[in-house]
Every structure is written in C-alpha cells, then in structure tokens.
Amino acid sequence: MEIVAFGVQADERAPLEKAFAGRHQLRSLDVVINRDTAPIAHGYEIVSSSVNGDLGADVLQTLAAGGTKMITQRSTGFNNIDLEAAADLGMTIGRVADYSPYAVAEFAWGLALAVDRRIVLAAHRTRNFDFRLDGLMGRDLRGRTVGVLGTGRIGEAFTRIAHGFGMHLLGWDIAENPNCLALGMTYADKERLFAEADLISLHVPLVAATRHLVDRAALASMRNEAILINTSRGGLVDTAALVGTLKTGKLAGVGLDVYEEESGIFTFDKSLDVMDDDILARLMTFPNVLVTAHQAYFTRDAVGQIIDATVGNVEDYLAHRTNENMLVTQGQPRAAER
C-alpha cells in the first residue's frame, strides 16, 4: 500500500519512514494539506495529515474524488477535520487518542518559568554581554495559586508539577479528576479561577463551548500580575482581546505555544516574508510575551507514540478493524462523536 503523509517535520521524517519500512511505501511531504495541496494525494487510498492541515469539506471532497478512503491524523486534536463531511463521503478518519502527557505538561511549565523569570530576555542580553538585571525580577511560585483549566491526562501531569512547586491548586473541568483531588486541588467555576489564580494554564480541547474561553471578560477578571499559558489550542484565547489587555499593562506575562490563526504560519519559515497577520505581529512586540510554534508535544517519546498509533491506525483500517483512535469508520461516526 502506498501512503502519502503531509506536514512531516524534518525531525519526524526518519522515524516515520522507519516505522512504515517493510510494511508500506510512504511518501513524506513537508507541505501541509489544504485545498491547494490536496490534489497531490490523487491515487492514494490512505493519507496522513498533521494538525495544521485543512481538512474542511472542500478538501475532503477533493481527496475522495482522487480515491482517498482513509485519513489518519498525527495528533490528538481534530478540530481541523469536518467529520460530518467525512462521514457523508464514506471515509475513515483516525487520529491519536493520546500520547505522553508529560511532553505538553513539562513544556507548559517551561513557558511559565521562562515568562515568570524573563529567561529569554536575559539570554538575549547576555549574548550581547549585557549582564544587567534591570527588568528581570520574577516571583516565587511556591505558595501562589495555579489555575488549571482541563484536568485530563495533560492537566493532571501539569498539576502534579504544580504540587511539587508547593502551589495552591484550583481546577475547572466538566468532571473532577480524583488524582487531582488527592493532590489537594479545589474545583471551582471558571470565574473564580480566573479571578484568583496567579498562573493560569489551559488544557482543554477546542470545541464550540470552549472557543474563546479566555475572552475579554475573562481577561478583565484576572489579577494584574497573572501569567497565562496556553499549550492546548489557539482558539481557546481571543487573541485580539489579549492584545488589548496587554496594551493596558495588565498581566505579568503570557506564554503561547498555539495561536488561533496559526495555520499556514506555524512550522514554516516566514523570516523573509511580510507578516500580514497584524494581531500576531503586535503580540510579538510585547516583552513579556513568549510565543513558540506548536512544539509542546515535540519530544522523541511523544512523537514515537504518535507514529506507533498512526501505523496501528493504518493496519487496523486495512484489516477492517476499528480502535479507539477511529472517529469515523467507513462513513459511520463513533458514537461519542455523533
């Protein structure tokens, strides 16, 4: 079987091709899938996509017309896929139900510490032999309150690290995690969490109910010296509202590994282009904001698990089996996704 994989990162290519070697022929492409690149997949029954791909109805129709019957996405999130259109087209859609939660949780803490202690600014200064400490004063995290929105596997891992720092734990989720409760977490409504937390970290999926979870009202209710971290999905934060808040001098810092309009920008070299996204360009001017390009998951451990799950999805599809990763199977949505 010949498979085409879109959006393959340079460090991902070798292990991905090794995993499929001896099983199937794999064509690895660095371009993401969208309406312009979808015709490349003509003749391929199986397509592997990355989280930054566009798998809207029009792209899926192009793929189906070219003979594609199965798409396996190398990510947990799937908000970029029109599942209803896929079902109507009789396609099978897979993803990666889970991978190392520590990869994302540890990176979220890396952002939090870098923002709190101004580590990036300090590193830039010392490279220029500027060893002043002006403007670099941070805060101890011990004894302060962390607010964790979403206490699933990643949120729990983040909470365990917060517990190690000696922080007070506030959580918000549709269901309480007993492991987080055992660590001393208090669950509260999101309004209380936004108002009381010194550090807020987002670990919820992007669905209709969570889009712009952090909106203008939420930002207004936060403490002036709060730190906001998002390693989940960009659409959780109203970025225009965030820029407006930062312009007032509110918030001690922000760490973002995701951005709501990141498609076509993140994971690409835009250094020689004119940045026409005014909101992102303005966001990058704030000295207390740190933006990374959706790399929180990007560890050898997590990528290896993602690749193993992707291979498993392909093998199960070819053997007419289903698994927990399948969102749509030959046009039939999984019950949980209906």
UniProtKB/TrEMBL annotation:
Keywords: NAD, Oxidoreductase. InterPro entries: D-isomer_2_OHA_DH_cat_dom, D-isomer_DH_CS1, D-isomer_DH_NAD-bd, D-LDH-like, NAD(P)-bd_dom_sf. GO terms for molecular function: D-lactate dehydrogenase (NAD+) activity; NAD binding. It holds the Pfam family 2-Hacid_dh_C. Residues 110-296 form the D-isomer specific 2-hydroxyacid dehydrogenase NAD-binding domain. Residues 8-326 form the D-isomer specific 2-hydroxyacid dehydrogenase catalytic domain. Belongs to the D-isomer specific 2-hydroxyacid dehydrogenase family. This is Hydroxyacid dehydrogenase. It comes from Streptomyces gilvosporeus.
